[in-house]
Amino acid sequence: MTADDLRETSAALAGRALELPELARAGTVAAYVSVGSEPGTLALLDALRARGVRVLLPVLLADNDLDWGRYEGEGSLGRVRHGGRMALFEPTGERLGPDAVTTADAVLLPGLAVDARGMRLGRGGGSYDRVLARLERAGAHPALVVLLYDSEVVERVPEEPHDRPVHAVVTPSGVRRFRQPAD
């Protein structure tokens, strides 16, 4: 994809996501900053923040768990390289602790693919599996939404016993729902 294609795709993705009722009524959204070839998230993060939404972004810990910090605009991000892996953009402000995600009304999850059942294929580090387990232990039921390109919605992905389905996938061309979040 060209830089123009990526900008257009990011804008379309943000527009679709902002139409979701789960994001429209959210006071707090846990999200992430896209890296590499992932669909761009900065336009969406800025739009949520402009609505007055508290946006939490992950900070990768040494054990692959996630701490959280507040997104205060693009200037509040720092580029951090973790070992030999790709550099991530993380919030540079106060750390809120791994349990901060349990306050979110919606959690935007990265992924490589999602299948027709709503099962998400992650990158294999287990960070978001830990987040989903933490939410379950806390009795928290935020909307779980994956942001992907259209071609990344597939018939079936491999599944492990600990995997949990998401509620919806947002792509530049639309939204596909798998189940409703609990109230």
From TrEMBL:
Coiled-coil spans are none
Is Zinc there in the keyword field?
no
SUPFAM superfamilies for this protein: NagB/RpiA/CoA transferase-like
Q: Which reaction does it catalyse?
A: (6S)-5-formyl-5,6,7,8-tetrahydrofolate + ATP = (6R)-5,10-methenyltetrahydrofolate + ADP + phosphate
Q: Write down the EC number.
A: 6.3.3.2
State the InterPro entries in the record: FTHF_cligase, FTHF_cligase-like_sf, NagB/RpiA_transferase-like
Domain of life the protein comes from = Bacteria
Keywords in alphabetical order, please. Answer: ATP-binding, Magnesium, Metal-binding, Nucleotide-binding
Keyword Magnesium listed? The answer is yes
* Reported cofactor(s): Mg(2+)
Q: Pfam families given for it?
A: 5-FTHF_cyc-lig
Recorded family membership: Belongs to the 5-formyltetrahydrofolate cyclo-ligase family.
Kindly give the PANTHER family that the UniProt entry links to this protein: 5-FORMYLTETRAHYDROFOLATE CYCLO-LIGASE (PTHR23407:SF1), ATPASE INHIBITOR/5-FORMYLTETRAHYDROFOLATE CYCLO-LIGASE (PTHR23407)
This protein's name = 5-formyltetrahydrofolate cyclo-ligase
Question: What is the source species?
Answer: Streptomyces djakartensis
